[in-house]
Specification:
Length: 122
Amino acid sequence: MKPLLLIGSGGAIGSICRYLITVYVSKHMTIAFPMGTFLVNLSGCFLIGLLWGIASRYAWLDLEWRMFLITGVCGGYTTFSSFSWESINLVRQGDYAYFFAYVLGSVVLGLLATVGGMALVR
């Protein structure tokens, strides 16, 4: 039960931060490009990389803190950061075929799934 509470509370914090940043950016930038989401995705990728780097170097970032910060906060903030980290891990493991399948499949099939879901409602 404790892991669910750690992840859930971190996810709530991450989701609220994502919303607030996106709203703030959209109020201050009047371009059609989704800059708020773009900035959230990039900062989430940086944050998950930073946290994993800290976790691999320092013992104080134990499993519970990783569940809260990485799975919870970063996962709630943006799943793109998880996607990015998993992709990098595939490259680090030398699984290049899985890397390309994961990246291309996630983007292409994700877009097709979105269009399919929208078409289903029409």
